[in-house]
Amino acid sequence: MFRLAFPIYVELLTAVVAVSVIDLLWVSGLGERAVAAVTVATTTEYLALGLFLTVQTGLTVLVGRRDGHAPIAPLIRTGWLLWAAVSLAVAVPGVLLREPLAALFAADAGTAALTADFYLVSLAGLPVFFAQGLVDGVLKGKGDTRLPMRHALICNVLVVGLDPLFIYGLGLGVQGAALATVLARLATLGVALLSLVRHAPSDGPGRAAAGEIVRLGLPMSGDFLARALAGMVLVDVVAGFGVAAQAGYGIGSKIMLAGVMLFYALRQATMIRTARSEPVGRPLLLGLGAGVAVAAVLNLAAAPVAGWFTGDPGPAVEFLRWMTLYLVPFGGLISVGGVMQAGGRGGRLLGVTLAGFAVQLPLAYALSAQAGVTGVWWSMAAGALVSLGGAVLMPGAGPGRRAGGPGRARGRGPRSTRTAAGPRSGR
């Protein structure tokens, strides 16, 4: 499990977290409004990614089920058609509506203007981001998590080099950070496409299962989308306490993502192994243990790391301290979610996620009115506990579940018929 999950963690850490954190580090020299603008804009990007996860997740699960049993080339072709449809539906309205979208979540007019500048480039570049996700999703379905990790590392190195050039060298400011990120992703996509050509052969005709891709991926997309929407609501709630509070929340949440990506790596690993009918161990216990470990590390690192971003790390440090109550149940929930998703119970996972937010969001407003911004952090912990309780109480969601998803019921035959050609773990 950890051999499979570690490359995923590095990939997520570098491709999702590090890119936005690097942008924040470089634009921090432009002031609090720039930091707040990048925080709002990257939160919106996560929301857009949640929409595309329908395609990416569904494709990963189906490739895992069919690899070695049925042609996967039709799945890949269908995936590209869905990519084009989602890219067009998200990027075009996003660019056209960038100014009202920025005004909806920014704390003041100055921050809104900077956010709209970032949106102009970042939202137009979403098709590149989605294409990278599609390629990596196919490779993961085939059991290869190392190539997506390498692609993410390449992108990360490029952003490190391009950010200062575009932000300060060319004087593009906040918009330069967005342009550097899109160009880095475009170059990385070229490398990833070569990997896809080499590792996903054209294996003949077969059924192009667009409906099945959407059906399998939609619950994960809904789960991610709900989290992104809730995050945007929290940005709005915290904005009511001023720019300093909003910037502190943005910095703290970016730092926390470095730990949270461990949970998502475990979820992807359990999802891949479940789709491929391989054992998953005890994902719930792994997730809870990961939550304890991440909370401990973040408490130790809160003050020095927050100081990298701002001269007043107090709001970010307070956020990270309170997140201990949130991270432990959240780790358990996310880790066990991979088994539920690939095992055909993604709808139930989405249900408990929505139940948690039904508790969290009203509490965020109610508790913040009494306890200030700290009440928002309490509401996050309450929502995570409700979601975890609902997931654990579901039949078949216990900690000792083995993989063996719907694929076996369809007469594909046991995986052991394929392992005679060599162990799967070597891929």
Automatic annotation (TrEMBL):
Residues 399-408 have a biased composition (Gly residues). The chain crosses the membrane at residues 7-26, 46-63, 75-98, 118-139, 151-171, 251-272, 284-307, 319-337, 349-369, 375-394. Keywords: Membrane, Transmembrane, Transmembrane helix, Transport. Residues 416-427 have a biased composition (Low complexity). It holds the Pfam family MatE. Residues 399-427 are annotated as: Disordered. Multidrug efflux pump. Belongs to the multi antimicrobial extrusion (MATE) (TC 2.A.66.1) family. PANTHER family: FMN_FAD EXPORTER YEEO-RELATED, MULTIDRUG RESISTANCE PROTEIN NORM-RELATED. This is Probable multidrug resistance protein NorM. It comes from Nonomuraea typhae.
